[in-house]
Amino acid sequence: MKQVYSLKVLVAIGIITLAYSASYAQCSAFVKKKCMPKIQPFQQNGQINSSSMTSGQKTAMNLTFYSGQDYRILVCGQPQLGELTFKVFDSNRKLVFDSQKNNYPDFWDFKVKNTQQLIVEVQVPESESTSSVLPTGCVSIMVGFKKA
Question: Using an 8 Å Cβ cutoff, are 124 and 79 in contact?
C-alpha cells in the first residue's frame, strides 16, 4: 500500500513540475517577443522579473536605481489580464508615479538624481467576467537604462 501512495505522490509532483515548466516557458516566450522590444531605445538591465498573475492580484518589487542614469520601467502583461496599472513609490512609500493618473502608459521614463530604492507595485484589474475561472497570465516588470 505504501508503494502505491509513493507512486501517486511522485506522479503528482511530476505533473506539477511539468505544468510549472510549461507556464514558465510560455511566460518567457511572451516577455521576449512582446515586452523586450518595448524597452527600446533603453538597454535592458539583464534581469527579467516576471510571474503568472490572476485577476485582482497585486505584486510589488524593490529595485535600486543609480544616480545620473536615465531609466525606463516597463510593465507588460498578457492581453487577457486587461489594462494593468502600476505605481512607483520611494522607500518611504511616498507616491512618485501612478500610471492611472497619467493615461495608463505601460512604461515610465525618468532620470535619477541620487541613488535610491524604489518600489514598483503592479495591479491586475478585477475581471468583469461572470465565469468562475479567473483570467491568468504573464506579467513582467522590466528596467532599461541609457548608456552614458
Answer: no
